[in-house]
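Lab notebook, bench 4. The sequencing result for the construct came back, and we need a structural model before the next group meeting so we can plan mutations. Quick request posted to the team channel:

Model the 3D structure of this chain.
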Amino acid sequence: MDKNTITGFILILAVLLGFNYFSRPSEEQIRQQQIQDSLTTVAREQAEALQTELKQKEELTRKALSALDSTTMFYAQRTGEGTTVILQNEVVELKLNTKGGSIEQATLKDYKNQQGEPVTLFDAQDARMKFMWAGKNENIDTEDYVFMPVAQSDSSVIMRLQTAEGGTLDLIYKLRPHSYMVDFTIRTSGLANYFPPALKTMDIEWTDNARQQEKGFDFENRYASLTYKIKEEGIDNLSETKEDTKDVPEALDWIAFKNQFFSCVIIGHQDFTNTSLSSVPRTKASGYLKDYSATMQTAFDPSGKEPTVMQFYFGPNNYHLLQETNHLTAGKKDLELEGLVYLGWPLVKWINRWFIIYIFDWLSSWGLPMGVVLLLLTLLVKLLVYPTTKKSYMSSAKMRVLKPKIDEISAKYPKQEDAMKKQQEIMQLYSRYGVSPMGGCLPMLIQMPIWIALFNFVPNAIELRGQSFLWADDLSAYDDVIHWSKDLWLIGDHLSIFCVLFCLTNIINTWISMRQQQNSMTGEQAQQMKMMQYMMYIMPLMFFFMFNNYSSGLNYYYFLSGLSSVLIMWFLRKTTDDRKLLEKLEANYKANLNNPKKMSGMAARLEALQKQQQAMLEEQKRRKQK
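Done. Here's the predicted structure in token form:
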């Protein structure tokens, strides 16, 4: 190594030593750096400890929730706001709320309310339905939970609750196409341990404030009722006019919250038991008809092997539609939903079901206005009962032409104590001339069931709803062209023109009927009839106060019926020759003179009463003589 190389190394070493000396930190800087290093170490240690603590808390929370879920099945779904799920088809739209998992609104697309909008049967403010179970550690109420909609489509949805372990409670809704029927199934999976082994039923609570849908509150309220079907028996209902509650011991097939033209029905294919029903009328200005409520139980299998099957019907009370809906049953029951359309007592119901409805449908199929359909229906019914009407009139006519002979018998027995003899001789006279005093009553009794059948049919015919005719804008409600602002006692706030016309024709018919009866009666009977006629004339006035709030279609039918009766009586009177009729009766008398007929049952009873009376008089005379 030469001199220059050694000198270079020495200089480099000197530079390094000098740089190190002048660049080293001071004592204060060294102390600050030591403090900073200590703080960094502490922060790192605290962060590691906090992370460890969080992990421990998370584990404790997970374990706590798992333990909590073992007693409260759906704890995580108790909070949150519900959302709306819409199911719809061509005729109905349903809104379901995930909070509670139930249907909160039903709207019918093909029917309009008084404002011209689709009819809404109920919404969230009107109705409530919940399902309840008795668990091992708590009672489960669907209103307390927010369901998760899964497998959703336009017409079906599954509302689901799920436990931490994966157990599920599903509320399954499926809306049938082109139908008002909804299939509803409650299905569980993996929940058996949450329920007592002996649990076999679940509870249902359903309430609904039935909306007023039609113009006439009183008339609509008269046909709105809580209706139910007893299993393997008939259909019954709570009172339409007053508050009514009932505990039903029998098993039920379905329960309906019914308006005049629409119904909400719940159908239990595993029966409803332990049912309590309530119906409370509302006031006229409330916008509601009645407050309905129903609590019941139905079958429930906690193991999930057997689902609970029900159905809903939200739709019109159309007789044929309800018959068709029966075929959509999810079980084997004969639902008999057409019973929601009340057709009257058994005999009257039979007339409506097998006669009036088919004639009405046949006439309606022509596409004519409903007012014309009712006119043709009236004329057809009058034509069918014309033979009995004519027979009734001819019976009165025969008694009228025989009145002079009856007057002779009355003059023959002027004393009151001879009244039985007089009556017996009159009956014998009628028998010999071939006249039956009851001949005019029986035909009228035959017509009466038809009159009552139409009284029940017309107010329940949804086909008349919203149909206008002449001055009536809705044949299913009263016509109120003449109206005022305040209700008047017994009348209300309007005057029904069809009701006035009906009452006027009723007065004319009463006058004609009274004249016919007076012309065939003599003596005391005629005097009694004169006294009775005043009461008979009061009836049309009573009808006015009763029917002023009834549907214009019903009053229109009664007016047509009364008017046609007046015309028929006028025609029969014009075409009846009293002289020829008397000649015919005289021929009957001569034919029966030598071969007298056996007296009628009434004549025989009168003769027996006369003999009994004579025996009593003779006994009284003997006692007086003693």
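Residues 75-342 form a domain with the Beta-galactosidase; Chain A, domain 5 fold (CATH 2.70.98.90).
Will bring this to the meeting.
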